[in-house]
Amino acid sequence: MTSEAIAQCLGTNPVVVRRTMGFLREAGIVSSGRGHAGGWRITADLTVVTLQQLHEALGEPAIFAIGNRTENPSCLVEQSVNAAMEDAFADAEALLLDRFAHVALADLVADFKRRHAETLKQKD
Amino acid sequence: MTSEAIAQCLGTNPVVVRRTMGFLREAGIVSSGRGHAGGWRITADLTVVTLQQLHEALGEPAIFAIGNRTENPSCLVEQSVNAAMEDAFADAEALLLDRFAHVALADLVADFKRRHAETLKQKD
DNA sequence: TTTCATGTAACAATAGATGTTATGATTCGA
DNA sequence: TCGAATCATAACATCTATTGTTACATGAAA
After folding, report:
1. How many C-beta neighbours within 10 Å does residue B111 have?
2. Angle made by CA atoms B54, B57, B58, in degrees to the nearest 5
3. Which of B70, B88, B109 sits opposite A96 (nearest CB)?
4. Mean pLDDT of all residues belonging to chain A
5. A50-78, pLDDT tens digit by residue?
6. Which nucleotides of C are covered by protein (CB under 7 A)?
7. Longest C-alpha distance within chain A, in Å?
8. Which residues in chain B have Cβ-Cβ distances shorter than 8 Å to A9?
């Protein structure tokens, strides 16, 4: 599939697609080819690659949008608040990543097939 | 405590402090007074107000920094990905908020006192 | 050799958060 | 009553991260 086609699916730009897919290539999950019949293809085993691995491949972007204002504040009150929140955040992150680790691409394929069959049925 | 003083503690601006504290006032957690001896004071019971309530008072800002690109995508693949992630996100969010619900301001005060005592001891 | 595709750098646009300035309203003490 | 201290709020500015765009180079295949 070309970057152009993927970009259209996502409503974005081919260069943006290449930017992100590049990380997946570095992780060995996809490969890219140039020229005619070029584009992106999945090279990894769909039953092995998980959402967790994708997250890791994409550079482990920050999971939470809220959190500490300062990492090591001099204010003791802020220190207490940070400490109280950090435990909770760590546990929530662990839970999320564990869930992600149990979703393989093959699971997504299976779900997609179900949706696709449903869509075809609707057209009758 | 004045907005000015709080702003200095946080390394920010008094107006920014008022903006945020205004939400806490609406929730009845703090009150503000003008003029001499004015400023902010906590009106709620410290053993009752939790981090969860603060989160709610602040308008329940989005917890996650990652997630769906599109809420209701027409792309079936994206739909499958979204569905797989949403469950995990929901559970992680529930866990986080439950943790927050079990941290009262009084707990923060206790932790602060411990830190404060420790700081004084260090000075010897 | 032409066409189609990625690779990549540089730059632009956008949006959201944060910071700032300015002005008005209120309270309290002298 | 006056003046200083303080919040209330609107308007505007700045910052930052993401996302989008343009341009050009590189490589592969018909």
Report:
1. 18
2. 90
3. B88
4. 95
5. 999 999 999 999 999 999 888 889 889 99
6. 3-10, 17-22, 25-29
7. 66
8. 75, 77-78
